[in-house]
Write a structure and sequence with these properties.
Arp2/3 complex 21 kDa subunit ARPC3, 8 helices
Length: about 210
Amino acid sequence: MHIPDGLIPMDQAIIYWIITLIVLSIFFVRVSKKVDMEKRLVLTAVLTAATVVATAVSIPSPFGIPMHFFLIPLVVIILGPLNGTLVCFLALLTQAIFLGMGGVTTLGANVLVMGVSISLVTSFIYDLFKNINDRLAIFLSTILGILAATLVQIVILILTETTSLEVLLASLLPFYLVVAFIEAFINIVVLELIFNTRPDIAGIEKV
C-alpha cells in the first residue's frame, strides 16, 4: 500500500503532508496533558519497531502479489487513534529513508492512508462494539479500518489520473479484504494475550 515518490503531483502531496502534520500536532497537544508518558513512549517505540518489520515483511499470497500486514489497528486499540497515526508516521518515515519503501514526498499521503484513515475508523468501530463483545470489536474494527484505508488510497490514486476506478476496485479491494480478515484474526489472538498478561497496558488512556 506504499505509494512511491513521483506518482502523486506535488500540489496534492503537499495537501496530504499538511493534513498529516495537523493530526500529529493535535496528538502532541493532547498527549502533553497525560500522566502516563513514560509507559506510552516505551510502547510507542516498541510498536513502531514492530510496525516497521510487519509492514516490510512480504508474505506470498494467492493473488501473486506479496501481502504486508499493517499492525496499525492493533496499535490503535492499545494506544488510541492519534498515537496510531504517530506510530504509522515514524514507521513509514523509517522505511522511506532506510528501506526504500514508499517515499518522502508521498509520506503525507501514505500516512493519511495507513495512519489517519485506519486509526479513525478502527477506533470508532472498536469503541462502538467493545461493550458488546471485545473479540467482535477487534475483528470488525480491524477489517473496516483496513478497508477504509483501501478506499482512501483508491481516491488518492484516482486524483493522480494515472489509473481508473474499475482497475483499482478490481485489484486493491479483494486483495486488502483478504489481508484484513487474516490480520483481524491475528489481532484477536495477540491482543487477548497482551491484555491477559499485561492488564496495565489495557488501562493506558487512549489518545
